[in-house]
Amino acid sequence: MSFDIDISARLGSFDLAAQFSTGPGLTALFGTSGIGKTSILDMVAGIARPDRGRIVVADRVLFDSAAGIDVPPEARHAGYVFQDGRLFVHRRVRANLLYGWKRAAPTDRWIGFDEVVELLGIGHLLDRWPATLSGGEAQRVAIGRALLSGARFLLMDEPLASLDGPRKREIIEVIVRLRDELKLPILYVSHDEAEVAALATQRIDLDAVVPRVEVTAAASWAAVDDYFAAQFLPLDAALDAALAANAAAGLPAHDVAPNQGKLLALLVQMSGAKRILEIGTLGGVSTIWLARAAGAEGTVVTLEADARHAEVARANIAAAGLVDRVDLRVGAALDTLPMLAGAAPFDLVFIDADKPNNPAYLRWALQLSRPGTVIIADNVVRDGAVIDAASADARVHGVRDMLALIAAEPRLDATALQTVGSKGWDGFAIAIVKAVPAA
Amino acid sequence: MLSTPETEALLLSLKVSLWAVAGSLPLAFALAYALARGRFRGKALVEALVTLPLVLPPVVTGYLLLLAFGRHGPIGIWLESWFGVSVMFRWTGAAIAAAIMALPLMVGAIRLSLEAVDRRLEVAARTLGATRWGAFASVTLPLALPGIIAAAVLGFARALGEFGATITFVSNIPGETQTLPIAIYSVLQQPGGEAAAARLSVIAVALSLGALLVSQWLTRRTHAARSRHDVQP
Asked: How far is B30 from chain A (nearest CA, A)?
């Protein structure tokens, strides 16, 4: 999570309550003027104080009313680019740029003066006074000043609002480079649709209809999931028991959400799959969905590396009365997969195990398939981290390599979808195996 | 051109005024800052008290100083017992009277220059790593500085002209408390003193006019600095 924010504050005549979590990239806070967008930025920067709540940026707690944490603004490493630039009028451009740099600890100076000047194209402005700069020039200097202060994230408050068309495009290009080349998390306030469309990796709409503002990305996703679940998913004692057992056994809470489990079941029925392979059983919740959908004559072969997980799953499957349809094999999937040739071909393969091995699992899925087999791979968005080619996370690379394999594989026809819901922001890839004549 | 007593009065006036301004500038700045930035109970009262010497008859101000700093006054007793000094009938007393009279003008001018500084710049400085004090010292202070100097010059001019409170408080002692205005008053009391009065008056006018011009120039410069469109390096 880049920005993890849950704050409330009384601002004059209205209450601001904001709760959202963002992935990497640029998150746009979208909404009409006067509804507290800037106040949220101010609170993240530490120049305004929420009444209560918690602000975490890139895993660093900046404010936590419960824990009594309130990091002063000068120690937050926020690169705040104000709508009006706010250059120091009594200092030339060079001195403006170096203002924060001089105050930053040497270890916080992750970018050099020359690099910033080059990136923003402001070399010819260094000896000018701020009052002589155009709006676009001033805004570029303001961005440079923020970067040089050792900023670990950027807060941008309608930085394009005072610029005309061509200047706007110039700055948009700069911001895109900050987002994609420097990989800085950016919280960006705007009320301009086109701007947001051009820049935002993720967008959070602030409701302007009532004075009480509720920013509820994650919370409202979960609420909508609850609503859908209430519509389509009757209470299910077996699944509830399985979920409770998993939680009691301390399994990671990666069980599929009810409405997503139902999607698996629907896909099984739509494709008429009878022989199903699941890589990654965990506590068996998805296994139960798959086995039920496969019907009495269906079988699910499910592979689990962790003996303890497998034990919990076995109990859950037994409690759901599905023992005769499920073949649970314990052991590293890369060891158990080669032994499945006898059960192949499978009609549907669900890949939901350790992500770094995804490319290998995909190859095995293909190996054990026939034309028409459906292959589903879960968790391919990872809060948006999937677009980060330079990620330090091996799971992200596992997903990316698998997606590249799918795309390059002539036997596969595929797409991928993002999902939001009670499990946050993620998604899945789905592919069908085609008959390809030998080349 | 000037007689020895006249030169003495002029130099004394300059000394008294300089000390009055130097001594009261920190207090004036603190008051101006509190009035410009502070939100506290009794702000209106503080504001009124600071302005009071401007509207009170100077004789009353001098009399109040006499009561406070006199042998039996609270501040007088304190100065006597702790430092063994008295400001009564001394040039230091003249400086205190001048400082009190100059204070309202200085506080007003400094306050205006502080209020003219865009506070959002200080906020920007905080986000760039400056502490509260660092942001004030590196942004607000330099931007307000011409205004603060202008206020000091204005206070100096006012101190030069101080008469009523001074003569009431520390009397008219040549070489000790007889400042330029008091010297002019004194020579006018004597027959044939017109020429000396005229000479001293010309000096007083020149000093005051010069101070005002400097003050205005500094104030204009402050505003010009905010919109330096035409100044190229």
From this structure: 23
